[in-house]
Amino acid sequence: MAIIYRIRTEAAGDNVAMGDIRLTWERCASSHSSSVASTLLSSTSSSSSSHPVPAICSNDLEIAMPTFKVFNAPYTTQIDYPSSGVVGSELEASLVVRNLTHVALDMSVQVPNTPGFFTSGPKRMTFKILPHATYQVVHRMVAVHAGRQALPQFQLQAKKYNIPDAGKAVKHIYIRPI
């Protein structure tokens, strides 16, 4: 069995220590796994068994995590969606990206189709953000169904870092009928 953890840190720097990991496990002290299994099975099936129950050994292992080079986020994003709308009326969603670095960033943004809206504008575009500047992408859409609708999600990626912006949870708005 494998367990994968995601570690987050608040500090940035060259040698950031992530702490220690403590592994704890238990195992039977017997050297023959088949006899251990038969002993465990017989001890659970009948309490008056003549077979001895093997001792349980508990082990702890503490491992120091290596140090990492941690970078500050190269950009911030702010997404503004409308809170509600009416079927057939135009709605506007905007994405504001702010470059926090001293170099220009090449970015790409993609807006996938959603069944509740007709969208206008480019579905995929690339742009460059100058150092400490902001860039705004405005996406217009028209609601085609009434009720609770999932909004189109911006998928943003910085080409230099090759890490897609995971995005936020899917947002929904209520669309009123005409």
Characterize this entry briefly.
The chain is mainly beta and 178 residues long. It is 7% helix and 49% strand.
Walk me through what this model shows.
The protein is mostly beta strands. It folds into two domains: 56 residues, no CATH class; 102 residues, Sandwich (Immunoglobulin-like), CATH 2.60.40.10. Helix content is 7%, strand content 49%. The chain contains one helix and 15 strands. A four-stranded antiparallel beta sheet has the order 5-7-11-9, with no helix packed on it. Strands 10-8-13-14 form a four-stranded antiparallel beta sheet, with no helix packed on it. Strands 6-15-12 form a three-stranded mixed beta sheet, with no helix packed on it. The radius of gyration is 28 Å and the shape is flat. About 9% of the residues have low confidence.
